[in-house]
Fold this sequence. Notes:
homodimer; mainly alpha; Tetracycline Repressor, domain 2; 2 domains; elongated; DNA-binding
Amino acid sequence: MTAGRNRSFDKDDALEQAMLVFWTNGYPGTSLSDLTNAMEINKSSLYSAFGNKGKLFNQAIDLYSNKYGLVHTDELSKMEKTLPERIRNFLLSIARMITSSNLPKGCLLCNSTSEIAGNCLPDNAAKNISAMNQHTVISLTDFFQKEQQKGNLNDKFSPNTLANYLLTLQFGLAVSARNGSDMEELEEVINFSIVQFE
Amino acid sequence: MTAGRNRSFDKDDALEQAMLVFWTNGYPGTSLSDLTNAMEINKSSLYSAFGNKGKLFNQAIDLYSNKYGLVHTDELSKMEKTLPERIRNFLLSIARMITSSNLPKGCLLCNSTSEIAGNCLPDNAAKNISAMNQHTVISLTDFFQKEQQKGNLNDKFSPNTLANYLLTLQFGLAVSARNGSDMEELEEVINFSIVQFE
DNA sequence: TCAATACTGAACCGATTGGTCCACAATTGG
DNA sequence: CCAATTGTGGACCAATCGGTTCAGTATTGA
């Protein structure tokens, strides 16, 4: 159908590299040359494939969310385990990722959330990131609500509060990882942070 | 002694304004014109008074630490209250500040910690910020150690873990505030986060 | 084979970046 | 009063910013 020369680079791979740069440096801390160096393409290829820096960032955020953000919740639905175990495994899964030696430290979504307050993010990015965080809270709220209905959790605290607590922990662990904490340290913090659920 | 024209602006006040800009936008997200606009001085005055952008940032971090960072620990030493109450008041004091309508949302130190991993921060800044975080952990560790010695706290968890937990909470609350959480929401999270201490 | 298509690399754009310099104004202490 | 000192504002700097344009080239389907 569509004739013409084929792209000489793997678009998915280039986007992955771009995402890693944003993850490391943040949006305002990343220049076009940072991106083209990491992606091993030149500017015009970047623009024809991804639009511009801002649109590339939005695509990088989406890739991050799908590849590194949403997977951890799987741990919450492994119903052969108790609720405290599932929550612990959920947080440990996050902790492993944000301290992985193969990846930038911390969490791109958490870093980006910190950048919302200034006006340095591109169009739609702030809105997208807020929506992703809100989605996390909503799905965690739903999760805790159902666990309470199942009788796995006393209803002293509202599901919404518990969801906000978990999101707060995620943020805190991510910044701690950026600050140099390793997996061991985060695991100790996690073990203490979920005593209330036991 | 020193002759010469006097500065026509208040240096402390200008530094405060600069700090607020860094707090809002982050270091790479802040330009010199952002700074000179907020400080209401021009570039040469900025350079003669503060050195350059990087040195100004370091001074802004110091100001933040002294004025907004260290004050909350006072709550921990109000010995007429119980340990859980003191920890709760410590976190509430932080939560009030990071959601204050008079100030940028969140915490400048937390934001800056997220920026360490890239190489966008000026000389010494990354080191200074790491040292401040480490100081927080050390003093909190010392605090919990003494509370255990006093018998106010069981020794199931190590003081260092408890200190890391509190720092993680601070980070998490700060990013949550950046994400739009208000004082009410943070208070609910705090109430749940310290159940282990009761 | 060949016209149509789409990627590539480099030149180029105006704007802004952080930073310097200097003539001049203002204030000081002697 | 006056020389010494210091701050001020604006001109100026090279470098980089994000972004565009385009001729040339490679690849496609017909």
